[in-house]
Specification:
Elements: H1 2-20, H2 24-34, H3 40-56, H4 60-68, E1 73-77, H5 85-91, E2 95-96, E3 119-124, E4 137-138, E5 150-152, E6 174-178, H6 182-187, E7 194-198, H7 205-212, E8 216-222, H8 226-239, E9 250-253, H9 260-263, E10 268-274, H10 280-285, H11 297-317, E11 318-327, H12 337-351, E12 355-358, H13 361-366, E13 377-379, E14 387-389
Parallel strand pairs: 4-12, 7-8, 7-10, 8-9, 10-11
Antiparallel strand pairs: 1-5, 1-6, 2-5, 3-11, 3-12, 13-14
Helix pairs in contact: 11-12
Bound molecules: S-adenosylmethionine (SAM).
Length: 396
């Protein structure tokens, strides 16, 4: 311990001495050695400027500003906590945007776009269902779980939430996440007694939201990264009472999700496939661990391939009549619509599985007071085989 402290002291000293030396060459050398000429955040912006200006046209400048602005959090309330957190946050000016959703509203045509993620729910037809070619839109409105509550400060108010405090049972009262991350969990339409698969689950924000429904019979939580799965376990321990985290209720694994079809088929009523992606906002903000860094170029290029394999695995794992939610936090069409389109095609051609795409427009319309959504997007390669889907864009 003493040695460690001395070492730390010495390190600090060296730092101090360096800061006293005249700036000249030393500063230049250090800069050159540690900072790439083009940091990953700049490479990400260059890439988005090139691709999204074409994909989004005149919407890109405002979407760009939104991506570069401070992220706005939501606080997902923890029903397992004993503290009266909601009243406390309401007193501070927050509102539960799910409770405020306009469930009576009918979708209208005017819609504007803002930011990040593409979320696409897909329904698996009965095995003897008719072949759907081209893929058909299934117009249904998910029943919103009354138990998922997520509060936000009013539009334009970027007050930060204080870290959640533990209650007398050491459970935290809320989990902070991008408010839009709750939308795929709501759209998944989990019903009483369902078996649910969360294929890429860590660090666990959406897993927690799914557990808040208190409707799930069995939840299977997976993430290929062992370290991130460890984080997820810690999150669950901080929010969910031990008696809920039994083998009968939940299974936590660290498998490669792309191989899930080899492990378990036709087993789940619902599957959430929240894939790794270019995490657009993060890639513009943080140089550390950035997918646009030169060392991760190969990984970035392989993303659509991995996403497709994960979605296909989620489809195989779901039983006939079940629903699959594909979600990302990127605007990229290649990582959103193209992946869903290819998955539908391959599921039919290779596995004989027929899918219909659920139209999310009525769903997004319910939340138009809180989020900006993309205008209609189309699934399908040509005019004659178009199926509409809606992509949800994170942020306010
Ligand atoms: C967008 S994050 C998931 C976020 C999570 N759903 C949440 O709400 O906190 C994507 C996750 O996919 C995981 N992942 C990447 N490749 C995977 C694979 N082949 N199988 C399973 N998980 C994978 C990553 O480790 C990462 O944790």
């Amino acid at each position: 311990m003493a040695l460690l402290m001395d070492t730390r002291f010495l390190l600090r000293k060296v730092k101090d001495l360096r800061s006293l030396t005249p700036k000249r060459n030393r500063v230049k050398e250090k800069w050159a050695a540690t900072h790439p000429k083009y940091p990953p955040t700049s490479l990400a912006l260059q890439h988005f400027d090139a691709t999204y200006s074409v994909q989004l046209g005149k919407m890109w400048p405002s979407v760009r500003v939104a991506l570069l602005s401070e992220r706005k959090y939501g606080a997902l309330l923890n029903n397992f906590s004993h503290d009266a957190v909601l009243a406390d946050l309401q007193e501070k000016g927050c509102r539960d945007f799910i409770n405020d959703a306009d469930t009576e509203a009918q979708p209208c045509l005017e819609q504007v776009s803002e930011e990040e993620s593409g979320d696409v729910p897909v329904k698996k037809s009965d095995s003897d269902g008719q072949q759907l070619s081209p893929p058909q839109l299934s117009p249904n409105i998910p029943q919103l779980s009354p138990n998922i509550k997520c509060v936000v400060f009013p539009r334009g108010d970027i007050t930060r939430f204080k870290p959640a405090r533990p209650d007398t049972y050491r459970l935290l009262g809320y989990y902070l996440l991008d408010a839009a991350s709750v939308l795929p969990c709501l759209a998944l339409n989990v019903q009483e007694g369902h078996n649910v698969l969360d294929l890429c689950a860590a660090p666990g924000g959406k897993t927690l939201a799914l557990l808040q429904t208190q409707a799930i019979r069995f939840l299977c939580v997976n993430d290929t990264s062992v370290s991130r799965t460890l984080r997820l376990r810690k999150v669950l321990q901080s929010y969910v009472p031990k008696e809920f985290l039994t083998d009968e209720n939940i299974r936590i694994t660290s498998f490669d999700g792309t191989r899930w079809g080899d492990i378990e088929r036709n087993s789940f009523d619902r599957a959430l496939v929240d894939v790794p992606c270019t995490t657009d906002r993060h890639s513009l903000m943080e140089d550390d661990n950035n997918i646009f860094s030169k060392t991760r170029t190969g990984e970035r290029r392989r993303l659509p391939q991995v996403q497709l394999a994960l979605l296909l695995a989620g489809i195989e794992a779901t039983c006939p009549g079940g629903e699959i939610m594909y979600s990302t936090c990127t605007l990229s069409q290649i990582q959103n619509l193209s992946v869903v389109e290819q998955a539908i095609h391959l599921a039919r051609e290779k596995h004989g599985i027929h899918l219909e795409v659920v139209d999310l427009q009525p769903f997004t319309h319910m939340f138009r007071k809180t989020f900006h959504f993309a205008p209609d997007l189309h699934l399908g390669g040509n005019n004659s085989s178009r199926v509409k889907v809606s992509c949800i864009f994170c942020g306010h």
